[in-house]
Every structure is written in C-alpha cells, then in structure tokens.
Amino acid sequence: MSRLLPLPVVVPLLGAALTLVLGRWPRLQRAISVTGLSTTLVVAAVLLVQAYRHGPVVLAVGAWPPPVGIVLVADQLAALMLVVSSAVTLCVLLYSIGQRQAEIGENAPVTIYHPTYLVLTAGVTNAFLAGDLFNLFVAFEILLAASFVLITLGGTEVRIRTGSTYVVVSILSSMVFLAAVGLVYAATGTLNMAQLAQRLDALPEGVRLALQVALLLAFGVKAAVFPLSAWLPDSYPTAPAPVTAVFAGLLTKVGVYAVIRTETLLFPGGQVSRLLMVVAGLTMLVGILGAVAQSDMKRLFSFTLVSHIGYMIFGVALSTVAGLAGAIFYVVHHITIQTTLFLVAGLVELRAGSTDLRRLGGLARMAPLLGVLFFVPAMNLAGVPPFSGFLGKLGLLQAGVTAGGALPLALVAAGTLTSLLTLYVASRVWNIAFWREPRLATEEPAVRLPATMVGATVALIVLGLALTVAAGPLFDVTADAATDLRDRTPYIRAVFPGGTP
Amino acid sequence: MNGGGAGPTAVLVVAVGVLVSCGVRLLLERSLTRILLGIVLLGNGVNLLIMMGGRSGGAPVVGTGPVDRMSDPLPQAMVLTSIVITFGLTAFLLAVAYRSWYLTGDDEVPDDVEDRQIVRRAERDEVATADLGGEGPGADPEQVDPEPARRRLRRGDGVA
C-alpha cells in the first residue's frame, strides 16, 4: 500500500515533463494532464481509506530508514487534503481546457500552461505528504515557482505589475521559512517531523517559542493571515480565471495545513493560542470589511478568501479536538467553495465581458443557469443552512463556546458577525449583477459559454453539495484526524515503529 | 573555521548579520533591480546561517578520519539545495524586472489599485461609493442629490 504513496507527486511531475515535450500536440497534452490528475485523485482516495482504517501510511523514500532518509506520510489529515485538492485541481483543469478553446487574442492558449499546472499540483501534493521539514520547504518552492509562472502568464503589463508584488512577498516568506528550518536544525539536529516532535519538547521554553513564531510567520504569509495578507487581494484577481481559482482554493490552504501541523505535531500546548486567536479575529473582520467595500467580483472574492482563513486559524488556536475537527472540515469546505466562486466569476467575465459590478446587471434574466451557478456557492459561503458552510461555522462556533473564556467568546461573536457580513456581500453581488436591470456591458453575449467550463463548475458545485449531504461521515473523519493530531502518537509511531531513535 | 565541536566563528555571525541587514535595506526600495539584489544578499545570509547550524570539522567521508571530528554533512546538502532554488527564483525575478522595463520603461513597483483610488478620491474630496445596489442618483429623476460640499480652505493653506 505504501508503494502508492509517491504517486500523487511523481505522476504530475512525469506528466509535466511529457506535456512539455509534447507541447506541439495540444490534444495529447490535454489527455495526459487529465489522465495524470485523475490517477492522482484515485490514489488519494485509496490512501484516505487506508489511513482511516489502518492508520497513517508511511514510505521511506529510497528505502533509507527514517531519521537518515526522508519520509512521506499520509495520515488522515494529509490524505483528506490530498483527496480534496486533487478533485479540485482536476475540475479546474477541465474548466481551463474549456476556456482555452473559447479564448482568442490576448488570452490565446499558451503551451507552457499544462506543464506548469501539473508542477503546481505536484508541489501541493508533496507539501501535504512531506514528513520532513526541509522536504516541506522544497514542496513550497515547487508550488511557488510554478505559481510565479502562472500568475504572470502571457506577461501583460497588469500581470507583471501584480505578479512582481506576489513574487517578492512569496520569496521573502520562503526566506523566513528557510531561516527557521536552519534554526530548528541547529537547535535539535534533525528535521524529521516525528523526531522533531520529541526533541522540540526537550528544548528550553524561550527557544521553543522563538522557533514556533518563526515558522508561524512564514506560514502566516502563505496562508494570508491578517497583518500578512495585504499582498493577496492585489495579486490574485489579475491572473486568468482558472489560475486565480486554483490559487484561491489551494495555495492559502497549504499554508493553513502547515500551520495545523506546526501547532499540533511540532509545538502542542498552545503557547501562542491567544496570539493566534487575536490574529484570527482580525483576519475575519478586516477581510470581510474589505470585501464590503469592493466593486469588482474577483477582488471581492479575494477579500472573502482572506476573511474566511480566520475561521480556520480560530479552530487551530482553540487546540481542542472539536476546534481542530471544525477547522479541518472548514478547510475542506472552503477549498471547494472558494474555487467554485472564482470559476463562476470567470464565467461571468466570459458572458458579460467584465466582472466589475458597476457594469453588470440583469444576469439572472439573461443567463439563468449562471444565476443558479452563482447563487448556490455564494449562499454556501455565507453559511446559510443547510449548506456545508453553515455546518462548518456551526462546528467552529460550538467548539468556541465549549472552550469558554472571554477571548474565545469574543471570537465566536466576530465569527457570527463575519458570517452575516458575508451574507450581505453575497446578496449585494446577487442584487447588483444578477437582479437589477440589464446594463450595456451585459447585453450581447461575447461567446456561448463552453459546455466543458459549465460542466466543470457544476461538478464543483455538486462536490460542495455532497459535502453537505455527507457532512456526518466527513465530520467523523475530521474528528478522528483531530484526535490523532492531538495525540501525536499515531503519527510518531507510524514513522518509527520501533520507538524514536 | 575553527576545529570540530566548537561554536561558529564570530566572522561568520557578523557576515550573516551584514548580509541580512543589507538585504532587508535593499528590499525596502521600489526598483525591482534593487529588490532583486536585496533578495540575493538575504538568500546568501540565510544560507550562511544554515551552515552555522551544523558542526564544523574534516571532510565527512567515511575512512578519512575519526567520525567525531567530521563536519556535519546535512546542512551542506541543504545549503546546496537552497542555493539552487534561490538561483532559479533570482533568474525569474530578473526576467520579471526586464519585462517590466520593456513594457513600462522602468522597473518600479507601483502603488496598488486601492491606494491610487484613495489618493484620487482624496484629491477630489469625494466620499467612497457606499453601495452600488441602487441605480445611482443619475438614473432616478425623483432623486435629487446635493452636490458634495466643497472643502473649505483654511486661511494660509496657500491658494497659489
């Protein structure tokens, strides 16, 4: 079973090499990408079942035993993230194939798109599977390098302007991460996460705290947590729609995943939980207030993205099983929904020629299907019952109330307010773009919406609804994953069956 | 470098400090070329920092000397990896700077959209558009909005 473990990383990388060589044959390129990502999805599902039934799946790469060689670990959290991310990347790939066929002129197809996209996927899956801090760093670099190419795709003036900010901020956060990795190694003499879990416990309190904050700083930039989030709304919206969608869905969540790992496996005990809670509350409120003031759909969704990262950080900061379970559920929900919303924004842009709310109107009458496609995920994001957004928020708020104390309760209030403001923002977009009288910009359809794009969006919406229907079993898995994370022993014992050296 | 076991030399520590602080200073510039130089310096500083994390000593090859006097090979392997990565990212950033210069004539990082909007509004003394939900005052003949009050210039503000 553990032989399957490298496949989610290796298959996309091989696919990237093949699609690069076969750049002249677009049809073959598309077939390879779709096959590669479908394989990844199947393998991820098998790994999740295995991890749920029999505990973490571990592979020592190159058969070097753990503390010397590097390990890949798929525990329930990693496997769950793997399944969701592969499903989302596959849908976005299909969407972008549809878009490529529809677009002409400045947005003409670029041969480099498929290889880069596959490298990005490999980076994301590697980050989830990494059982070694340096391997995690390399995974981040893989996905960042690919994302740099994707965000500046075509090299137009706007994309270069926003891309340069994104590139510099990302490199800076990588430097912080690298320095933290170096310091962790200097303090403990290892980078294997299971071994670190033991050795970090033995360090003096101050050193531990410094290392923890350094790592959280690096991951905080990637996850776009409030004081470190200003780069996101400025750089994401200018990229092509599928690229923005996959960035919004996955890249920030990789950061959240890294925060969860740091806070549970490496530094349990919640030394900085108060700090994390304050930061989470500010992320929620500042993000959603930003969204209220926006007049462009893509920028608006970028702000809701930042805002809802706060919910996940809140769950992590509670560091109870219920809080963690809620946070993991919310990550799964948010990956799906936020990606869907950006895909819908892409469809609106294609249909109406703009995503600027001042130029839109009457879409519900002219394109009823588009209206439904927007309405369902938007209400889901806002947390209207019975959707998964409601269930996720309810889980987190319940965990907050159970934890008690002034700060968690203040955060519960902030979370409720954010949820209401999200509803306000979603209904505002609905009223302006879909409900009011048609505007000039929306009258003549530029092109018919390609069936592939609509199909991929529908598939993601169905996935979002499936999360609602299957919320019970899914909460079982996340609660189980959270219990394992809190215990730490299942992970450590899986990596070192004969005890930690 | 001093012999095996002892801590890092002061030279190395100072070098890291100088590289990182120069790097940070350059990162605060607006021109991408300077930012690029800053990233190069910062990257090298961090690489040296990693080198200090391991024990120094003889070449870590089995059979060339006693094992406890060998240097730690792991930080060296990590530094090699990170040098390659920094090199790649630097090359990419250089390409971005070149493209920016090609398109706009300079490689400065401009203000973002929001900032420029706020500056524009402040100059015209406008309030931000509150909600776009209605049809706007222009579309509704019944609605008459007063002109925004002009800001009264204080005496001595200098009406040139």
Automatic annotation (TrEMBL), chain A:
<feature type="transmembrane region" description="Helical">
    <location>
        <begin position="272"/>
        <end position="293"/>
    </location>
</feature>
<dbReference type="InterPro" id="IPR050586">
    <property type="entry name" value="CPA3_Na-H_Antiporter_D"/>
</dbReference>
<protein>
    <submittedName>
        <fullName>Na+/H+ antiporter subunit D</fullName>
    </submittedName>
</protein>
<feature type="transmembrane region" description="Helical">
    <location>
        <begin position="166"/>
        <end position="187"/>
    </location>
</feature>
<dbReference type="GO" id="GO:0042773">
    <property type="term" value="P:ATP synthesis coupled electron transport"/>
</dbReference>
<feature type="transmembrane region" description="Helical">
    <location>
        <begin position="80"/>
        <end position="98"/>
    </location>
</feature>
<feature type="transmembrane region" description="Helical">
    <location>
        <begin position="362"/>
        <end position="383"/>
    </location>
</feature>
<feature type="transmembrane region" description="Helical">
    <location>
        <begin position="327"/>
        <end position="350"/>
    </location>
</feature>
<keyword id="KW-0472">Membrane</keyword>
<keyword id="KW-1003">Cell membrane</keyword>
<dbReference type="InterPro" id="IPR001750">
    <property type="entry name" value="ND/Mrp_TM"/>
</dbReference>
<feature type="transmembrane region" description="Helical">
    <location>
        <begin position="300"/>
        <end position="321"/>
    </location>
</feature>
<dbReference type="GO" id="GO:0005886">
    <property type="term" value="C:plasma membrane"/>
</dbReference>
<feature type="transmembrane region" description="Helical">
    <location>
        <begin position="29"/>
        <end position="49"/>
    </location>
</feature>
<keyword id="KW-1133">Transmembrane helix</keyword>
<dbReference type="InterPro" id="IPR003918">
    <property type="entry name" value="NADH_UbQ_OxRdtase"/>
</dbReference>
<dbReference type="GO" id="GO:0008137">
    <property type="term" value="F:NADH dehydrogenase (ubiquinone) activity"/>
</dbReference>
<comment type="similarity">
    <text>Belongs to the CPA3 antiporters (TC 2.A.63) subunit D family.</text>
</comment>
<feature type="transmembrane region" description="Helical">
    <location>
        <begin position="110"/>
        <end position="130"/>
    </location>
</feature>
<feature type="transmembrane region" description="Helical">
    <location>
        <begin position="447"/>
        <end position="471"/>
    </location>
</feature>
<feature type="transmembrane region" description="Helical">
    <location>
        <begin position="136"/>
        <end position="154"/>
    </location>
</feature>
<feature type="transmembrane region" description="Helical">
    <location>
        <begin position="403"/>
        <end position="426"/>
    </location>
</feature>
From TrEMBL, chain B:
<keyword id="KW-1133">Transmembrane helix</keyword>
<feature type="transmembrane region" description="Helical">
    <location>
        <begin position="35"/>
        <end position="54"/>
    </location>
</feature>
<feature type="compositionally biased region" description="Basic and acidic residues">
    <location>
        <begin position="147"/>
        <end position="160"/>
    </location>
</feature>
<keyword id="KW-1003">Cell membrane</keyword>
<feature type="transmembrane region" description="Helical">
    <location>
        <begin position="74"/>
        <end position="98"/>
    </location>
</feature>
<feature type="transmembrane region" description="Helical">
    <location>
        <begin position="6"/>
        <end position="28"/>
    </location>
</feature>
<dbReference type="GO" id="GO:0005886">
    <property type="term" value="C:plasma membrane"/>
</dbReference>
<keyword id="KW-0472">Membrane</keyword>
<comment type="similarity">
    <text>Belongs to the CPA3 antiporters (TC 2.A.63) subunit C family.</text>
</comment>
<dbReference type="Pfam" id="PF00420">
    <property type="entry name" value="Oxidored_q2"/>
</dbReference>
<feature type="compositionally biased region" description="Basic and acidic residues">
    <location>
        <begin position="115"/>
        <end position="127"/>
    </location>
</feature>
<dbReference type="InterPro" id="IPR050601">
    <property type="entry name" value="CPA3_antiporter_subunitC"/>
</dbReference>
<dbReference type="InterPro" id="IPR039428">
    <property type="entry name" value="NUOK/Mnh_C1-like"/>
</dbReference>
<protein>
    <submittedName>
        <fullName>Na(+)/H(+) antiporter subunit C</fullName>
    </submittedName>
</protein>
<feature type="region of interest" description="Disordered">
    <location>
        <begin position="115"/>
        <end position="160"/>
    </location>
</feature>
<keyword id="KW-0812">Transmembrane</keyword>
